[in-house]
Specification:
Blueprint (H helix, E strand, L loop, with lengths): L11 H32 L9 E14 L4 E10 L10 E6 L10 E9 L12 H7 L2 E14 L7 H24 L1 H12 L7 H9 L10 H20 L2 H6 L2 H19 L4 H18 L7 H14 L7 H20 L11 H35 L1 E2 L3 H26 L6 H22 L6 E2 L5 H15 L10 H12 L6 E3 L5 E5 L5 E5 L3 H10 L15 E4 L2 E5 L5 E5 L5 H7 L2 E4 L11 E3 L1 H7 L2 E5 L3 E6 L3 E6 L40
Parallel strand pairs: 3-5, 13-14, 14-15
Antiparallel strand pairs: 1-2, 1-4, 2-3, 4-5, 6-7, 8-9, 8-16, 9-10, 11-12, 12-13, 16-17, 17-18
Helix pairs in contact: 3-4, 3-14, 4-14, 5-14, 6-8, 6-9, 6-13, 8-9, 9-10, 11-12, 11-15, 12-13, 12-15, 13-14, 15-16
Length: 678
């Protein structure tokens, strides 16, 4: 309590004490955040493979994901031949072509081809290895040959048993929903309920992405709010039917408790993915506020949820799920009330007018929330996925009413009827609505430019736009206008992107090089996944199989050369015989081989440096060469434009290029597929 009386201004000394106290709290929170990061990193630490191995593996099946062809298994390893126990991964993710008879909890054995979880395809790209680290996955690959079930000598521990039972129940319900609905709608309907997306055909995934609706098949914020809201509304409505209960009991709080329990069970049943857990925490905080008679939606509650999430999973701060979900919710809570129509003074006279007014207000709310959420999440979508869906407002306006009013209530009713085998008609009814959603998505996705690729945002641009969003949402006064300063500066960076001139694969299997015409040209044999990540980072919408990608490269059995801007020639060497000519004439050489010490090219990246640095990007300027690598960050090397060789002096390879064998890569099948908020 202050020493001065009520209404008296604080003294300068008290101002100073308050400022110092606030600064100490801020520093404490900062150090607590770093501490949480260290604790989390060490608590999940587990060995990971550092090389490709083909070896017998024995392990318990923790989870099974169905695919259009085969299955994907998450194994908790108990034995791995030829790999020391100290280097043996705790979990591995493997695919099998035939998985009949396999179920979660079984102990299986077989020969597996395993490799380390792949790192980012380019510095700043999606890093599957980091995500795998925090999930305890130390290797990925495939089973080769026969997979056999064996009798375990010891029973699995409680956590494995529980995970296996939950996954088994999810798979059973997924199969039941998919078979009841059928087709692509069956896969989407099952994913909406259980979170298992393996049965969705890839063309359907692309349709949903193009319409800005892929977020509906990821169990996250939308699903958790609708599921918890359905529980809340049903319990409150049922209790309100009894006047005695409605007058004497705290019906609203009872309904909030039912929503908390229902949301928690739903999170566990849907697999407890990271995005789902974050959504659950936000939901629990908001319904917890109802229990203590506080507003359910407020910036304070959102901040509490963010602190809980980051204390538990500090790595989430760097991921798109956390950034997009919290930015969307914060922006909606701060801005949606400002753009709503003012309340009409005179009440509608007729039931028809009241109905029209209700529909109009609902549509206005849907449009404004979708618009605000789309704008708030656009910077993060552009940074992480290099794609935007400009027609997402139309897609969400058409589809979300069906999802909110038909699909999710049907899902809750179907799950309740499932134990009594009365659920099939419910799933079929839900499937009709899902089919309508897919039809609307296909229509919106057919628009020209429904998916627009943009150059990867610079970190500075993302930070400035994030600061602008924070300033816009936190203050409740005209101080919000200060958000225009960082947002304007961030947009200036967005408008002038600094594109990379060369993308080099982590293993030196190939590269994308900016040719004289300004577009990227592909050399070597990078995987389609990696090539498309390079193209998207450059804002290029071409697919990896586009024939124009190799027209600018001159290739023979020794490698390839590409004429780049500024009279530079970039050489990709695949055979030692090419070093003599390329070292004399090329400006930049990269190769999986070891370059001879006599090579006089201006810039040489050979196999040893690639192994040390991982995937790399290079950007040229008149003064220097800027090199970014996944493992070593950013480096500036001196450069003299006067030394650049002219195109006329460069080699011309005209012999047909001979395909070179490249080791297989095992890349993630999901994680880069959506630019939607969770």
């Amino acid at each position: 309590m202050s020493a001065y009386g009520e209404g008296e201004p604080p003294s300068p000394r008290e101002h100073t004490v308050l400022a110092v106290f606030s600064a100490l709290i801020a520093f404490t929170a900062l150090f607590a955040g770093f501490t949480a990061g260290v604790i989390r990193t060490r608590s999940v630490a587990a060995p990971a493979l550092t090389r490709i191995v083909i070896t017998p593996v024995t392990g318990f099946i923790e989870a099974i994901d169905d695919r259009e062809v085969g299955k994907r298994l998450l194994l908790r390893v108990t034995e791995m031949k030829d790999v020391a126990e100290a280097e043996r991964p705790k979990r591995v993710r493997v695919s099998v072509r035939k998985g009949e008879g396999l179920s979660p909890g079984q102990l299986i054995t077989g020969t597996a081809r395993l490799l380390p979880p792949p790192q980012a395809a380019w510095p700043g790209g999606y890093d599957f290895a980091r995500d795998a680290y925090f999930k305890g996955i130390g290797a990925v690959g495939s089973m080769v040959g026969q997979v056999r079930q064996v009798d375990p000598s010891t029973k699995p521990d409680l956590s494995l048993w529980l995970a296996a039972r939950v996954d088994e129940a999810r798979n059973a319900l997924t199969e039941r929903i998919a078979s009841a609905i059928g087709g692509a709608a069956g896969g989407v309907g099952a994913a909406l309920v259980t979170g298992k997306r393996g049965l969705i055909p890839e063309p359907t995934n692309n349709i949903l992405r193009g319409a800005g609706l892929y977020h509906i098949v990821s169990i996250s914020g939308l699903h958790m709010v609708l599921a918890a809201g359905t529980f809340f509304w049903l319990v409150r409505a049922l209790l309100a039917l009894a006047p005695g209960l409605a007058l004497l009991w705290p019906v609203k709080k009872i309904a909030a408790m039912a929503a908390i329990i229902g949301a928690t069970v739903y999170c566990i049943f849907s697999g407890s993915d990271v995005a789902t857990e974050r959504s659950l925490i936000m939901t629990l905080v908001m319904f917890g506020a109802v229990l203590v008679d506080r507003p359910a939606l407020s910036i304070r509650n959102l901040s509490i949820a963010a602190l809980i999430v980051l204390a538990r999973e500090p790595e989430a701060l760097l991921g798109p799920s956390f950034q997009m979900s919290f930015s969307a919710v914060a922006a909606m809570m701060a801005l949606v009330p400002l753009v709503h129509w003012k309340r009409i003074e005179k009440a509608p006279a007729t039931l028809f007018e009241r109905g029209l007014l209700g529909i109009g207000q609902a549509m206005l709310g849907l449009v404004t929330t979708t618009l605000v959420a789309s704008i708030a999440t656009a910077p993060f979508a552009a940074y992480h996925f290099q794609s935007l869906n400009p027609y997402g407002l139309i897609g969400n306006a058409l589809a979300l009413p069906l999802v909110s009013l038909v699909v999710m209530p049907s899902a809750v009713l179907g799950v309740l009827a499932y134990p009594f085998s009365l659920d099939r008609p419910v799933w079929q009814f839900m499937g009709v609505a899902v089919s309508q959603v897919l039809d609307a998505s296909a229509w919106v996705g057919s628009f020209s430019g429904s998916t627009t690729f943009v150059p990867a945002l610079d970190v500075v641009a993302l930070v400035l736009l994030s600061i602008g969003l924070i300033v816009l949402t936190i203050p409740a006064s005209s101080l919000r206008w200060l958000a225009l300063l960082p947002a304007g500066a961030g947009l200036a960076f967005v408008a002038t992107p600094h594109r990379y001139d060369i993308f080099i694969d982590r293993d030196g299997a190939g590269a994308a090089i900016r040719a004289k015409g300004g577009q990227l040209a592909i050399v070597g044999r990078p995987s389609d996944f990696v090539a498309e990540q390079w193209l998207h980072a450059d804002g290029d919408a071409r697919s990896a199989d586009d024939g124009s990608l190799r027209q600018e490269a001159r290739c023979d059995a020794g490698g390839c050369v590409v004429a780049a801007a500024g009279g530079r020639w970039i050489a990709f060497v695949q055979d030692f015989s090419a070093f003599e000519e390329d070292c004399r004439r090329a400006t930049v050489i990269f190769t999986r081989l070891k370059a001879p010490p006599t090579c006089r090219a201006h810039f040489v990246l050979d196999g040893e440096e690639l192994k040390e640095r991982g995937a790399m990007t290079i950007r040229f300027s008149p003064e220097a060469v800027e090199v970014h690598s996944v493992r070593k960050g950013r480096e500036i090397r001196s450069w003299s434009g006067a030394e650049t060789l002219q195109a006329e002096a460069s080699p011309a390879r005209e012999r047909p290029r001979r395909a070179q064998p490249v080791p297989e890569q095992d890349f993630p099948e999901e994680g880069l597929s959506t630019g939607e908020p969770d």
